[in-house]
Structures are given as C-alpha cells and as structure tokens.
Amino acid sequence: MDFQKPVKIISDLHVKYAEKPWIETVRLVRRCMERSRDQSKPCEPLSRCLERLHETLTVNSVNTMMSRLELIAKQTGMGFHFTEATCYLTADMFYMEVLLLPAGRVQDVKLALCGEAPESNESLLQLLRTKDFVEFSLKLADLSNLYGLFRDNERKMKLFASLQLLGKDLQKISHLPRAIKESDPLVDTVLNGRIGYLKAGKGDVPVTILFYISPSDILKSPKSTVAAMRAVGRTAQVLVGPSDASHNLQMASVMPQPPELDPQGLPVMYPVSEIPHETLPACFLLKLQPPLPLFLSFVNNLRQITEVDIPEVQLQWAPFPKILTRDSFCTKTCAETLDSSQDAVFKVHLPGESAHSYVLPGGAWGSVDLRGTVVDTVPFTHPGHVPALLEVLRHQCAINTLLTSCMTSTWPCSDAVCDLHFEVLPESHKSFSVTFYQPDFDSLVVLLVNIDDSHHLTCSVFAAGLQDPSVNDYISRVMSRCMSIPLTMKALWGKLQEIATRPPPPPPPVCPPADPEVEDEHRAAPSPVYHNVSGFVAEHPATSSSPVCHNISTSVVAELDNDGETQRATDSPAAPSGSPCYVMSVTTTSQPVVVPPIINTSPPVNPYTCVQLPLVVYSLPQERGPQWGPQWVPQWGPQLLWR
Which is nearest to 446 in space by CA: 462, 424, 428? Predict the structure, then answer.
C-alpha cells in the first residue's frame, strides 16, 4: 500500500488537470513559489520547474506572453507590471514598454533611457517577434550591467552622463579632416581613421567601433558594406566599468569649439583636470569583440598610453602560438595538447592542389618575452587615449593575421605529404622569419618580415645567388596586399624559379691582349706619321704596346719638296685601325726643325681605353726615319721635338 499511494496521487493529478489548460498549471506553480518559506529566495526546484514549463509552452496568447516576460524580468533583476495590453520592465536607469496584440503577437518595443523619451527599438522587437527569448534575456542583462554598476542612483547618473559625453567626443574626433589612403572610403575609415568606423550608441546598443579588417577578408567580401565587414572584422564597444582605483571622469566635453588640430595633425583636447569632472571608482572600457591575443610588449604599450593597469586576474599568459590556436578556429583539444616545448605543425592547402607545411618550433616561441594573453577589455580614462589604443590593437591584428594564415585545424600533419616545408621563427615581437630549402641552389632561403605597424610591412629575401634587388619590393607588395604567409611563399617560390631559369647575362667586352710579335715589328719599323687637322697628337713610346687609337675622321697628308714648299695635299680615306699610331708633321729639310709647342686644351684621354676608330697610316721613307723621333714633354702637353 505504501508504494501504491504516490502512484495513486500522481494518477489523480493527471485526471484532475487533464482537461485544464497549461496556464492554470503555471499559475499553480507560481502560487507555490510565493508560499516559499524563505521569501528572499524562491524555491530552486520550483523555479527550474517553472522555467521548463515556460520553455515548453507555445506563446500563442497575451497571457502566455506576459508570463514569459515576467519570468525574464525576474531572472534579470528587473521589475515587472502590466496593464491591459502593455507590459513594463523597469530598472533604475531605463525601462521598457512591450505593446501586445492578440494571439501573443508584439506590436512594438520601446526603450527609454534615464531622462529620455521612449523610442522604438527594432532589434528588441525582432527578437520578441521571432520568439527568441534567450537572446532577449541576454540583451536585458547587458543593459542592466551597462547602467547598473552602483546601487545609489546619484553615481549611476554621473556615470551615464560621462559615458554620453565620451561618445560625443569620439564622434567629433572621427569627423576631423585627414589624408585619404585607400580608394574605398569605408575601408579607409576602418583601417586608417583615427577612431575607425564609429557607430553612435542608441538604446540597447553602446557606441561601437570597427577598427580592423584583414585585406584578405576585404578581397573575399563581395560587397563593401558595414554589416559584411563587421562579421569578419574587429570591433570594440565603448562601455564603463568598475575599477579598483578611482579616476577622474569627464563631466564636460574635452574638445574645443570648434575642434582643432595641432601642427602634427593630432586633435587638440583638454586634460580632464582642466574641465568639470568627477572622481569615481570606475573607468571607460573598450570591450573587444572578439577578444584579441596580445604579446606582452603590446599589453605594456596599452598600459603606458592609459596609465591604467589591466587586471592581472584577466590575463592568462602562454606561448603565443598556443594562444592563437586556442583563440582562432583550432579545436580546444589541439590547443590543450600544444605545450610550450612542442613544435606546432600545420598543413595549409592552396589553390592548384598544392600544400605547404609550416612548423613553429616550441623552443623558439616559448621565450618569456614572446608570451601572449587574450585581452577582453582595455581600460582608459580620456577620449584622447582611443586613437593611440586603436593603433596598437591594429598593429597586433596585422601580426595575428599573418601568423594565423599558416595555422589551420589540420594539426598535426607530420605524416602528411606536402609540396614545400617552411619553418616560422620569431625574431622579435614585431618581426619573424620564414625559412625553406631551395633545391636549385642547394641552399636555404630566408624571408625576413618586419611589421613596423599596421600600415608598413617590409620583406627581405636572403638566398644564394640572388642579386635582383627588386625581389624584396615585389614580395613586400604581395604580402601587404594579401596578408597571408602561404600565398606570399608561393609567390616567392615562383619568383626564385623564374630567376633560376633565366639565361646568364653576356660577359662584358674585354680588349684582346697585345701580340708580342706585332709589338716587336712596330718597334723595328719606322714610326708612322699622321697629321690631324685639329692639331698635333703625340704618343709616348712606352705606351705603344697597347693599341691606342685616336679619333681622326680626315687626315691631310702633305709631302714637302726640298725647298719646304707643299707639293700635294690629299684627303685620304680612313684606314683600318688597330696598330700603334703617332701623329706628327713631315718635312724634307735636312736640318732639325723645332716645332713650336701646341697646348692641347681637350680633356686628357685615358691611354688604356680601347677605341676602334678609322685611321690613315703612312710610313716615312726609310732614309729619313732613323735620325728623328718623338719625345714626351709633360709640362707642355703632347708635342713633338725634332732632332
């Protein structure tokens, strides 16, 4: 009988409520909760039972919608009351109106912040119309956390006013003139704007900043829209949060009217101490979405800019590859099995059925200086901190984009067949190297990548036999365009293959060596005589071993009679060049004649330069040759003395 009694009670309950609607059951459970012995805390089993009942019920009437909204209000710590067809969810800093229609449909949702008139909120309305009560509850919880830091309403009002002023100052900074760097205005605003792309806060949505998007994601996106970029980019919400230390928060605008720029192009702003302010145990926050992995040095840079410490309890330090794999697409098991001493090996598939393997040595990346952590919020106290903070965050985003481009969920891949194998080594917190083997030269090739900031990236290629300086510029442009290590290495491999298959350049022209037999013949033979219309030219005998020729386009050869008078003058055609040449005048007198010195005003000629020019060569009679010859007089320049 004892075992059959509970079964009979449940059976009687089934019979009693078989024909009654679920709403009466819900009311019964609620009355039981109100009769709980501890009025401050309802009975937990009954609360869970009521939640399961609401989740099971189909909202198809006004009463069921009211019951569901009442449960959500109690879960988020808000008040609830209703009229005939309107529900009110109230808090200290805001309240919400939900206008209902028959059959549990929702006509409108209005949100009123402190001191403001209620305005329709489209996002909350769509959540209730689609019966997405879980997301609706999260929105209410965010609103409560945003405006409910303190219990007393006075400090809540001050924080709300300071946050509103901060948002307006950030809008003024974003509208200041600046140089345009990108062809797409939206992309230029996101990547190069002082505040990025700023969306003003409205209702349940705080001020939101879209500050970074990868160039590869821009290329993949079919349309350059804010919604598309926000889905793949990095955003930050501007909030206010509690702080262990008290800070001065603005109660007036820090921007002069009208806004000004200093000579360096930076906005002029007043310190908070020079304007009305309040000292409160709170600070402004940049809530990063999604959280961003940062190097230790970048975390220190953020602290130096704001002079506000990021709580250490929020930071969990680990080797940076482990942080990246845990934060990105890699599975949790992959990140947990990757310790500081283990090499991370990844396989990357590229277009054209090619595959690369990338190794990140655990010993090299496990250095203390290269540790990283995931940062969720960045505290600050002044609007002027935001542009500098965003530049640091963009710099880290650029580094993370490059490193994660060679990290995939295909891990480990030590046994996988890949076309090329690469090793990625850290050089500093903002530079790394990629090493691979080049079989054409049987040597290693090293690509050194320096990321000075998010806008400047340089690559240097070190390879055996590489003498083309344009390769560095080419690879730098490729990596800056795609921000992908595998695509860059594929381009570098193709470039090196092209250079290896180029034919060698022709050797430079070299003057043929002088023939010793020809030189002896020239020494034994009488010196040939030439006459230049532009003047006399003499060659030192010591240099006659080299075939040095001077440009003589026309030679006038004169033969004189015994009386010293000219008998014949002819324009002789050019003769073949290549023999030692001496240019002088010819006389028939038996007495030595001293030719007056002629100063050559033309630039000195390099006697060792080989120039093949046409010359006319005539030899003197044998009987006149031995008794005279040329001499070199350096103080007068080239001339001839007869003896």
Answer: 462
